[in-house]
Amino acid sequence: MLANATTERPAQAPLPPRVHATPAAKGRWLLGGLAAGLVVTILCSVGVGALPIPVSGVVAILMKQLGIATGAVDAQQETILLVIRLPRILLGVLVGAVLSMAGASIQGLFRNPLADPGLIGISSGASLMAVVMIVLQINLFTGLSALSGLYALSLAAFTGATGATLLVYFLSRQGGRTVVSTMLLVGIAVNVLCEACRGLLVYLADDTQLRAISFWSLGSLGGATREILSVAGPFLLIPLLLLPRLGRSLNAFTLGESQAGHLGVHVGRLKGSVILLTTLGVGVAVSVSGMIGFVGLVVPHLIRQMAGADNRLVLPASGLLGAIILTLADLLARTLVAPAELPIGIITGMAGAPVFLSILLKNRSQSHA
Amino acid sequence: MIHAQHLSYSLGGRTLLQPQTICVRPGELVAVAGANGAGKSTLLKLLSRDLAPTSGTIQLNRQALSAYPARDLAKCRAVLTQQNTLSFPFSIYELVMMGRYPHFDHQPTGQDLAVVDYVLHQTDLAHMTHRSVLSLSGGEQQRVFLARVMAQLIDYHELTHPESDSLMPKFLLLDEPTTGLDLYYQHALLQQARQLTRRGYGVVAILHDLNLVMQYADQVLLLHQGQSLAFGPPATALTPYTIRQAFGLDVQIIEQPALDYPIVIPITRQPHYQPLNA
Prior knowledge:
Chain B: Residues 2-250 form the ABC transporter domain. Chain B: One of its GO terms (molecular function) is ATP hydrolysis activity. The complex is a heterodimer. Chain A is mainly alpha-helical. Chain A has helices at residues 2-6, 24-47, 55-65, 75-109, 122-136, 146-150, 152-171, 180-204, 207-218, 226-242, 247-253, 257-262, 267-289, 295-307, 311-335, 344-368; strands at 173-174, 177-178. In chain A, a hairpin with a 2-residue loop joins β1 (173-174) and β2. Chain A is globular. Chain B is 33% helix and 25% strand. Chain B has ten helices and twelve strands. In chain B, α3 (92-98) packs parallel to α5 (138-153) and α4 (110-122) crosses α5 (138-153). The radius of gyration of chain B is 20 Å and the shape is globular.
């Protein structure tokens, strides 16, 4: 380098040798592999249950839906697949993808690999409103229509999630700018307040209500229907389609806020987009499936272990892996103690914690080497 | 050229930078020196648009700095800041590629890849591009961050035609760039900066080592409590008198016949060290 600086360069300098081949290739392999894995996971898990359907049967039923007749289709299998299993599995796919991608985005926003959408109040707000509905047995919506009454709990949870997050967002604005470190502290305060109110309501609750609360808090995809899927699906798809576009800006953001600004990133717009999209996605996910812990934290970690920290890859890959993992977790939840069901949060927690610990221990042994 | 007129900055009633007029011409390396809290970083933050001046105007290439769209600004000025903490395992290659973000939309073009390769070779990083930035020492990280800001400014045609001047002058702002670097790389970094000035870049660098200022800077701005004590070529601006005003330290400035720059040596008047059992 010292020698380089002093020697005269010729007028037409030769380009330096290529450092390595395009790094995008590895990413395409990973995304392709995960997408294939997701398709296989869906096709296999859709067939498992009280009435087993072989993969060939699943394919035949799906082909028939697309208008391609490939042979005789069992009518009972068709009903179970289309009305019960497929909506549930698709909801699991969307919820898993949203939780993981939102986790990766929030980690980028807080520049901390341990961050979680819960930090800005999404989970505690949703949880508080859900408990309010359960304990106070508010039936505001029954007057309007029976259908919306059925979804009152989901609506309340979504309202709680967005309400708490907006509160955190606006309280942490100083002079027209959102200060991320302040947002963390405000988030802690709002979380504590929500948890305290929730605690008060749990204290007041009777035994049946307590059971409902604890089941909701551990999460379940058992409530999935075609209607829920058609209402929640589009709202879950919006963040899934838009968040990956922020990958490049989130990469620059990991250098620091001002450094990202120096690179031409509109920092304020980026923060607003991440907060809005994660709140929408996670708010809807929590409202249809309750609290499913650990997915948003562990899945991005797994992807970074495999493919590095580039958010252009981490965001879509986390979405795909999150979808696979939640589909498999739900498969266990509905088959392990059949005909009863386990809350899915128990499974994601039990499987996620050891995985997370093994990542930590592996990193520790590497940094000591 | 960067032209800052009557530039000042106050925060909460305290004036951090007194009004001053500064010019950074293409092809010049301007050093900013002064004691801690003298306003050096404030000045750099004003020039990099991190802070808006309380009064005064800044023009970059005859256009108001505040009027630049973020991405256009990113293409003609890059900033190396002091605090660079990372918590994600980006590879050296990915981090240097971030410097190209203002230049491409989705995937880097062949030109972007060529610029990154060139910069990696220039900064001695080409043999370790796959290493995670988290595994590097502080000094090595500083070199990677320097490579990133170089990748941000250099145009592809500068690689193929290094002698031709770039159309639009570009500016590099460095806040204590030699922090954490060993002796070799401190000089390597400043020679790199000099090489860029020969291509028509303007460089502003906050430097603490006055000998580095003497050796590499074309102009030096000496700040004291937000005020300019001296602004001019280092050999005339840095005198025992101005240095004493700025740092409260007596120095001797020695001309060396073999070198074309003088050497600054602090004179300490403390009692000599005495052995315990004397």
